[in-house]
């Protein structure tokens, strides 16, 4: 790769990019968009989600630990609930039944104070925009208040047509569908024309399955090795570390 292809990438990532190209059999890496997960990436919201998931599922006789929440973060809520029902109750339920259970989790979440924007996100977006790259959000959430908050908080960076929600795809993370849809919303890009930024194993798996260069920012309690084992091409401990590493030459 020549310098023009790598000058805007995180410092020290040339080796990771070369490995990615070899794995995917691409002959170039020319990102035109960054596809961000929302919870735990744009917002420091995972502690709130963990609390609400545990409290809501307990009402339906399901046990969910904080680690379970982080391990399944990024999946569509109804898919998480259906999986837990199969594992803990040995039965299958419909999306409609799971949605009723998820609605209770959403109700509890709405009662909590808003989670803060992740430190370093605005600075990173400024760097991305300075390179004339697109910003797309790919979330497993379908809660309208959260989407509205995205548009308010990141006005000028994120637009409605550049958001993928749970309702845009038949299969959520860890399937590649959400990130493939993100490529479409970015103008029909190819995988080598984007970067995924994730924080959770299921999201990393989805980005990798979509054949996109995937960066993990570990904002939860799981060790970095969990994210690396899912195929993350780079792992950072905090968003500010990732932002600081993103150099524009």
UniProtKB/TrEMBL annotation:
<keyword id="KW-0378">Hydrolase</keyword>
<dbReference type="InterPro" id="IPR051806">
    <property type="entry name" value="HAD-like_SPP"/>
</dbReference>
<dbReference type="InterPro" id="IPR023198">
    <property type="entry name" value="PGP-like_dom2"/>
</dbReference>
<dbReference type="GO" id="GO:0050308">
    <property type="term" value="F:sugar-phosphatase activity"/>
</dbReference>
<dbReference type="InterPro" id="IPR023214">
    <property type="entry name" value="HAD_sf"/>
</dbReference>
<dbReference type="Pfam" id="PF00702">
    <property type="entry name" value="Hydrolase"/>
</dbReference>
<protein>
    <submittedName>
        <fullName>HAD hydrolase, family IA, variant 3</fullName>
    </submittedName>
</protein>
<dbReference type="InterPro" id="IPR036412">
    <property type="entry name" value="HAD-like_sf"/>
</dbReference>
